[in-house]
Amino acid sequence: MYDVIVLGxxxxxxxxxLYAAIKKMSVILLTKKLGEHLRESIGILNYPGMLExxxxxxxxRMKEQLRSNNVTALEDEEIKRIVRVEGGFQVYLENNTYDGxxxxxxxxxxxxxxxxxxxxxxxxxxxxxxxxxxxPLFQDRDIAVIGEGxxxxxxxxxxxxIARNIFIISREKGFNAPDRxxxxxxxxxxxxxxxxxxxxxxxxNDYVESVGYKRFGVIRKLPVRGVLIERGHKPNTDFLKGFxxxxxxxxxxxxxxxxxxxxxxxxxxxxxxxxxYQYAIAAGQGCTALLKASRYLANRKTLKDV
Length: 306
Description:
five-stranded parallel sheet; FAD/NAD(P)-binding domain; 17 strands; alpha/beta
């Protein structure tokens, strides 16, 4: 039985696994793809100690750090379910099971895609799903923010002093957001709104050049050099239903110590109810989750020895 099983291979999961290895705990990391979401980042300007780094480089460095600390990371693994067993938990995969005394859930959240031509091809080439993180990369450029809710408005607001012109494109007549946020965002002269518009395609050769959309039956092309897709996220937590407490949207409920509703299970990163989608926060939560899991095991051992 492993001291800890880490589920998820993003920043939170890799940080937790790294700290476990450094503390000489037995650990295994199970994930579909190690560092997958990092590769979607155009560039990262707000990660401590890095003036600027692209997602692929950071992902590569984190993998090397895991390897240098002899962390076992299994990819292409889909988690089916988790059950309690004596002394801990059993994680069921497609063709195998693993036992752990503690668990750290760090399975992340998937951005809701537009599913239009050009979206996948130009990802990280002017397209991002992390508007607040990546906004600084669009200095003095015209950009489109695509979405109907608070996330789209917050992304536009955060970019207001960075981008030249910001076009919020909504498929609805208005926004599903608090009135105060709408008013605060739309007061800026460089933020413009295009409502009731259907995105058809994102154009560009090696980088985003324009967004094609249809409004009232007329097809138009909006020249931009960046596209921030903010249609929301879906937490990767379906396998946890009935095992621990999730909020109404499916995010794992945690306290400030990263504890979940199940003793011995901790959660970190984008799959939690924090919903901040920041790499620095994910790293901090991953570290916290591991330290709390380590302390939990130490306390349990102490009680057994009494």
